[in-house]
# Entry
Amino acid sequence: MEQFERIRRDHRDGGLSIRALAARHGVHRRTVRQALADAVPPPRKVPQRVAPVLGPHAETVRGWLTEDLDAPRKQRHTARRVWQRLVEEEGAVVAESSVRVLVRRLRVEVGLDRRQVMVPQTHAPGREAEVDFGEFTAVIAGEPVRLWMFVLRLSHSGRAVHIAYANQAQESFLDGHVRAFAALGGVPTGMIRYDNLKPAVIRVLLGRQRWENERFVALRSHYGFDSFYCTPGLDGAHEKGGVEGEIGRFRRRHLTPVPHVGSLAALNEALAGADARDDARRIGARAETVGAAAAREAAVLAPLPAEPFDPAQSLSCRVDAKARICVRQSYYSVPARLAGRRVTARLGAAMVRVLADGAVVAEHTRSLHKGTQDLVLDHYLEVLARKPGALAGATALATARAGGAFTAEHQAFWDAARRALGDAAGTRALIGVLLLHRSVPAGAVEAGMAAARRIARFDAEVVAVEARRAAGDRTPAAAVPLPSSAAPAADLPRATPSLTGYDALLGEVSA
# Structure
């Protein structure tokens, strides 16, 4: 284009002839004539290339690909198989790369390469949402853990809720809905799109029909939304493309580099903070932010039910000889008196609650790993009172030390008690003190142990007295209204009862 401009300028300003212009610009006189005739160069002619080797076989390949239209999808010709047949059956001497180019062109001609055209969709506010799980890795307490992120995304505003779980089990799937609806402050009034996740779909039937899981049907009925299931496989991925893209965006934006946290709960707090920051972003060229669109959409969401849905699953478990139950290949302790009995475990996404005779007897944070043991020292105290020698090597004691429940004050009391009373009696004294934690605050028990060590009295009853003294509330109780039938003397002012004299007596006895 620039060369044509220079030729035309020299002809206009200098009056040079065609021969002189060709000599000055080093081009053929035909090019000069073209430049003088039109300021725009003519389009280049693309030479028609011939295929002396593949040309005779083009119709053969076309026939093979045409037959593939009626063949099973997994038994159709690949470019490599076409090349192999040409070499073996037709005797062609040709490169595989050349065959790939031919097959790519013929696939389009015969209709095997039909690219899907997506139709843009408009989603009304508060009507639709999409749900999916996305996999990611986080370092929890110094150990890399494979996790799954539950994502519920509103189709209109693009606002999404992200929650991390240790698995994709049904309790995580249901719990994700409950927490996401609570975070959004409402429920879509139309449908939520899903792929065919096992927690929701037991079996894929013809067309859009599904055999659904009863627990998911109960959740859907509780919150009052409809479900839409996408076509299985890659063919249906575009039907919920919003959440598919959201998982990748969030993983790149907020989970890169790999997050390091102390617990799964801390990780979910970080994800909630990331969701709040994402309210300020804009999707594409939209004029309003995600947060502004979500605020407008929140007004038309269906209100939450009065009671949240309980996503926990009930399991019947037998307590083994070590006072443990096994739930999803992880072990959790229960009070030792239940050994050999059957109990009910309420398995939630984050907690495991154990019930016996209708009452909760144990609560544990759900383990992130299989084969682990979550043992509470309090569950074994009655057994340890009979077998004090087992305390030193007890797994539950190691767990209590690691979690901070068994403090340095406990250890100091235990050491002093064993020196004064012997191993067995000193350990039983410690166990008696540990039993106090069931009714007295931990800080008061520690104060009681310190006081007992000062007076060298290693008795659980002494620790109990000192602990209750440390935790005592001497604020006068509220006055009780007198009945109308009470005698006049009942209303006379009286001094508040006091145990000061008794406390002084105890001090003299201790001295």
